[in-house]
Records
---
Amino acid sequence: MHATLVTPATLARHLDDPAWVILDIRHDLMRPERWGEDQYRAGHVPGAVFLHLDRDLSAPKTGRNGRHPLPAPDVAAKTFGRAGIDAGKQVVVYDQNNGMYASRAWWMLRWLGHHAVALLDGGYDRWVREDHPVSTATPTPRPASFTPGTPTAVADVAEVLASLPRRALTIVDARAPERFRGETEPMDPVAGHIPGALNRPYAANLEADGTFKDPATLRHEFEALLGDTPPERVVHQCGSGVSAVPNLLAMEVAGLGPTALFAGSWSEWCSDPARPVEKG
């Protein structure tokens, strides 16, 4: 079973394996409607099924539940079943390069109890760079019965808020440093961060080519950030519950997980002006 990362060479050996399902999650937050689908139609890993971050991996927005709210478990299960996933399938997810979007699907499958899911390390860019085959054919997945297990714990806004007075949870914010400090905010109406949060930009997990750093390096960096904080007290967040997941995945690669996700993240937190905000 592959549960964190796979290389393009490993995936290439299983392109014709009926026990493997491949999901294409390419996306662009600044061009959310069509960009990923257009890229998929222009070329994708043979057999890959496209899922859209907003339409397939998020619930409707209310203005109070963040920019990428989690779907209900039964709704997410139906989506994964339509993609051909059941308990016997090894799933591989990828996006264009660094895993920011694909890791959302990785986390959601694990959230629902499916642990045979791994991220294609380096994404589609590495797949093409290493001269693996590309297809423009749109496959028709055979629907499967995806039966979710008991969902793993997800940190919600009330839990995070209640933790602040005693710093009961260690919040790790994956946004860029200037957004964390509140110097700029391109996506949400309020700038800043949750009081007491630590900043670990998700890109810090990556080498220059978009692949994840080796486990020992990741372990050293997270231990330096978190000290002796046990994993069960670590909660990851970002702007909307997407780019935080690479930090969660990196801790798994480093052997330091599992840890929790605050799925609503900053976009949910800042939707209520009564919640405290810190800058700097």
Note: Residues 100 and 115 are 19 Å apart (CA to CA).
---
Amino acid sequence: MNRRRKLAKFIAEAPNEDPRRRNYEQRVRQALLNGKLTAADICERFGLTNKEVQALLADYLAAGANLVQLGSHYTIDRHLAPDNDAAWKVVGGKDGHHRFGFVADTHIGSKHYRDDVLNGLYDWFAREGVTTVYHCGNWIEGEARFNKHELDDRAHGMQAQIDLMVELYPQRKGITTYYVTGDDHEGWYSQREGVDIGRLLMDTARRAGRRDLVNLGYKEAFITLEHPKTKRHTRMLIDHPGGGSSYAYSYAPQKRVEAAQGGEKPGLWAFGHWHKHGYFMARNVHILLVPCTKDLDTFGRKKGLEYHVGGVLVDLWQDEGGAIKRVVPQFELWLDRGYYNQQYNLSGPVAKR
């Protein structure tokens, strides 16, 4: 029996029901979005028993709400905190070798989403023996005033976009995708509804039998890279920053690296968000700009942005001290759809990738 049916059954069977109990689920949720309440406060305000309140709070959690307990008070927080304490560790292979795939800004749910690109990237990763892919955020399009007319017909509503993500996101044997949640696009739902959207995606994927999608948390996640022989390590940062593109692709990530304190600098910093591709160094940090899998949309044209469509496979090696001594990035890039469907190609059919 699903959550809504259970709640409807509870309301129907509740003894001595009075009008205050009707629609209490939404009313309690709104009260928790607007402030902090104890279980006793909820009981008194809405005429519920403590057992009913605890069941309701459990239902909110199961539905993806970012329910936070502060002492004896509860609240639904619209603002998620980065989870930098998670023990994400990867032990390298022979000679400290690591191989990862990177994707970002897939924007599933947008009419401009490139299913051919994302599936092509995962086919490439599978051929190259990649077992771990990192997604740098904005996995769904989300909903805002300026993009509602550019959504896929199946992508109206938060759960509809999550379901579409689980249905369309590539699944390849032996590959696990670890993702961070962007503060924009999927993050818009968190800001408006107080939902831990990253956890909701993973829970939905599990119910659909998919265990290849793993939530790293909100905005950023540090991954420890360990040398197999010496156990010395460095860190890699998977990041979905904010802010717009600059006049030079390197400027925005470079300023973030320059602003980082010495003890928190990662060995490799992978950025999504800007829909650009690139690799360079600053302050001994290997900087990776990860492309998108979305064609230029109305917002991009309005802002005068250029989208780089594709993904990247990275080989890196650690020395025995744990530092990254060598990096080999390989970018797989696509043109826009018109090139592949003969819209403007004058040289004859293009072979399928």
Note: The radius of gyration is 23 Å.
---
Amino acid sequence: MKWAVRHRTAFSYAGPVQDSFNEVRLQPVTNPHQQLESFKLTVNPASSVDHFLDFYGNWVHHFDVFEPHTFLEMQTEAVVITRLPPPLAEDAQPAPLSRLRDVANTESCFDFIQASRFTDTSPATWRLAVDATAKQTDVWQASLAIMRFVNRLLEYETSSTHVHTPMREALAQRRGVCQDFAHVMIGLSRALHIPARYVSGYLATQSASATHAWTEVYVPSVGWRGLDPTHNCQPDESYVKIGVGRDYNDVPPVRGTYRGTLSRRMDVDVQITKAG
């Protein structure tokens, strides 16, 4: 599937601000199941934009606006080709949980079995994970069980949380948005020593196009596999992957600081259309 993605973020300030330093993590990745054909970031007020790869291999574009301004706009345009990843059968049992000892201290997995800013692996989380997996002994089967459990446990409710809501709060109120579903699944997985990472991206559906968050779990002998607890499924070609991290804090679409008024308004608009 070929997608054209347009993502606009605009800030309006109540008064002039200055010394604005900004990072943008919105460039989709290229991997065996996704190919980025083009990407463009436009900034207003016009600024020089540079980029680098962060610790987890995500593209980060950054720019500064030193002069006073009351409006800041960032718009990205990308063309991406996605391919359906070969699904892992839901009855597959590729690796027993005992195999997780072999990957716990590897460079690719170590960070993703630790607690992080928005997730935890407390005894209460471990107890919930044990109950969710119902004595499963296979990594993939345990991961599927956690995904289904989170999908049943949480109710999707727009604006019920914010991007800085920790998983314990989402669990307490039993509702949230896609970031919360992902954080809860990640915490439960890590409590059982299943490496799990947060995925930032887009989801194109018939009813809406929007930023989205899901998870990837590491299955020994298979590798990283995507699971979306919000929709209780394995991601398909309607998912566009931007980046990965320990949780939302590692891959926010936009992050920045500035000097000036705290009174501001943020408007975000995402449009995803088929490009061919």
Note: Residues 2-83+252-274 form a domain with the Immunoglobulin-like fold (CATH 2.60.40.2250).
